[in-house]
Amino acid sequence: MGSNAPLSRHLMVLLALGLGLASAPAPAAEPIRIGSVVSATGPASFLGDPEQKTLELLVDKINAAGGVLGRKLELIPYDDASDTAKANTMIRRLIQQDKVDVVIGASTTGSTMGMVPQAESAGMPMVSLAAASVIVEPVKPYVFKMPHSDRMAAQKVLEDMKKRGITNFALLSDTGGFGKSGHDETLKMAASMGIPVIEDLSYGDKDTDMTPQLTKAKLSGAKAIFVFGTGQAPAVIARNHAQLSLGIPLYMSHGQASMEFAKLTGKAAEGIRMPSPALLIAESLPASDPQRAVSVEYKREFEARYKIDVSTFGGYAFDALRMVVEAIKATGGTDKEKVRAALEQTTGFVGVSGIYNMTAADHMGLGSQSFRMVEIRNGGFAEIQ
After folding, report:
1. pTM of the complete model
2. Which of 23, 159, 213, 242 supports an S-S bond with 201, CB 3.0-4.6 Å?
3. Looking at domain 32-148+291-370, which of 3.40.50.2300, 3.40.1180.10, 3.90.1150.10, 3.40.50.700 is its CATH number?
4. pLDDT tens digits for 7-24?
């Protein structure tokens, strides 16, 4: 027995080591790093603030359910303060220092276009939350966008004008990137649909009185006014329109599809029409509508957490992160080229903003049916059938 003691002790040491190794916790999997650049502050905060809140809400929800592929999501957020130059710096930092796997943003067309060259040169999948068609036209391999295009908005508005027998209109667009793009697309659409723009006017996003432009529109003989812009200026236009009692319909672009606009404008908003994603009328959608369930769930969770109205702008961020997660699941990892390809192959994706069908030739993936024409009634939104 004594001759076997060293061997026994040797076996006991090996067993102890084995048990120690078995009980040691496995190294935690690297998180999936989601970089974001939004305008959480500054003039475009009405876009970026709900986007930032939505990304935080959804990341927390996904992580609480176990993450993605056994890995937690890590949100690395930056606020460009509505400054294009800052957005350019921030995506460089996300790519070079933070080593993110994908970028969501920016909130505005200007910031997005400042970020595009760096995303493309780095082979970084990027999903924009801005609307202008130029973001994805021509197609850029690594860049996608969630919002409906300004061209689609113009088409939806002009179709409604035709239904109402409106034969011409005045166009009033802001001088920023969104307004300029919307202006150009509206002129093209008006020409193709045979509805003349008889007065082409503009305004600055900080203007506080639009009565000169509105008076000129009325004197031109316009049968309606279509405003293409974002921010708070369209609310000024709506109030001026009501004060002047112009007696002609007022349309807004999807840039005003939010309860914030309705509340900011007050009674002057009554009767204004605009194209909108289904989210704005989520709870009035029929049970058979494929977007109802996801839209109602997001709306209720967002409003329960933040105690403010849900926003269609936040909805774009909601769809963006969910689509990115689905692409990562489909590829089994975060290889950037594979994720890019999976995003491009997304089909039948039911979001709160529409049903997305991406292709190599279409990095937005929304059809005109994803827009609903709505009207402000009694301080809320109702769909126009």
Report:
1. 0.88
2. 213
3. 3.40.50.2300
4. 455 545 444 445 444 454
